[in-house]
Amino acid sequence: MASHKRIHQMTIGQWEKAFPTDDACKAYLAANRWPHGVVCPRCGNPEVGEHGTRAFNWQCYACSAKGTSYRFSVLVGTIFENTKYPMREWFRVIHMMLTSKKGVSALEVHRVIGTGSYRTAWSMCHRIRAALIDKNFRKLMGIVEVDETYIGGHDKNRHWDKKKGGVGGEGSDKFIVIGAAQRKGNVVARVIENTKTETFERFVREVVSTDVSLLSTDEHRAYVPLKYDGYKHGAVDHSKKKYVVGALHTNTIEGFWSLVKRGVMGSYHKVSKKYLPLYVAEFQFRYNNRANADIFGEAIKGF
Question: Cα-Cα-Cα-Cα dihedral of 267, 269, 271, 277, to 10°?
Answer without folding.
Answer: 30
